User: What shape does this take?
Amino acid sequence: MSPLIAVIKPHRSCVNVPEHWRYPFLPTASAILEDVNLESLLEDYFYAEARALAINRLETSATRGAIEIEGPPTNDENDIVLGYVISRLVLAATDNQALINYVALSEAIRAETHLTSETDEDLVEFVNNLGVVRVELNGSSFDMNFVDYVRAASKLREGDWKLSNRGVSKGIVTLDRKTLIRLMREVIRQHLEELPKAPVEIKDKFGGTIEDLKSQVSKTFTERIGGLNSVVDERQAEAMKELGRFDLSKAPPCFNLNLMDLQAGVNLAHPSRFFITTFLSSLNQDPEAVMRLFATAPDFKEAFTRYQVEHISGKTSGTQYSSPKCDTLVSSGVCPGPNALCRQIRHPLSYYRVMAESEKKPQARMERILLAALNKEIYPDKLIEKNLARIGDFDFEYNESKERKLSEAIRTDDISKINAKISHFQGRVYSTDVPNEDRKIWITKATVSVTDSNVDYDCLPLTDWKVALPIEEAHYKSKKIDLIVKPFDIDLDEGETRKLLLILDTVKES
Assistant: This one.
């Protein structure tokens, strides 16, 4: 069954078909589409009520996370089903996954509410008519093949949803009524979050390419689509505004990707929500701002979310929970996979701290670069002083830079723009002891060499990972990259001076 529209061929073998105004996404509801064409559905006065119900479904889902459409006799069942079909067409035309996810959850919650009033026999009929999983009634319980169960519960990570907590007998998982209904809410949500680019049923029924169909829908609902997209954008922008001075560019991939999912309307699993909350709390973000960030989630419940956030942040519990380490994030499925910097650190907060290197004062930044280059176990104070005196008041700022070949850039004293390949890139954590002090200076650095295909040129180590990460990516892909560089004569030891390039920045492709 395409989640965009009901399948055109209904199951004629059904005896007790649930009311379609409650479950308009069932394949059997497709019979109502007979003799309906797209132009009439979008423009004829006869279908005006269906179009109004479609917009109602979408607007209440986007703003309130609920669909409150009364059935017969207040609204005609055919109008409700056709309104649902129109809402799916409009969703396809918006091309807004966050809105699609909001609506999918609202539809699933609405269906869940109606399923609670069905008899056990009608509940089984509904599940099997939906065609995603199958169940059989077993006394007062329901039997489901374990493969169907695993697929349906794959994104439910809280509580006892793991198969190991359910028990399997001869390949069958037995569920009580409440559990089956909650599981079906998840099945419906996942099913309706998918909007195929070219659903066969739509093309077969209404003709034309999906782009043509979306174009026709857009013409009819231009203003409404813009309004729906604006609602989603406003929810996301308001949430981010509350985070104040928090800098997304310094956050690790695990945070940014989970935040992107949250902003797109994905219902995050508990480990991801716990991580986002503890990570932001550790950076002194106000619990109220964190709580509002979760307001973009389709299943947002203010009272529950407030309790969780204030408890985790220590506002009500008195104990502020620590953000999980990288190993924990990997094992719990929160980590999407490491980048070059992730491989050098063990905690997401360390990532954020390292990415703040460029915020240090220029002399402190240069001192740390020199320490990384000199690679001494004990702080080399004389060499540092000598090099800093030679470099002078360099502030890392640049305006215009002349484009030069690499071989020319190394011979000038000016800042240059070069296009080169990265012949070597390696990250590591370096430390040096500070004399007369019981402490070390820790630096996460990347050693880099660039080449013009004939000669390799060594660079000063990179400590600014906002610059290092795109360079590592270019090295991994064996691609050339535009760099802003300046050469410096560096005393590496007594009697050993070398000219090394300082990479100031990368130039993004236009």
Q: What stands out?
A: The mean pLDDT is 83.
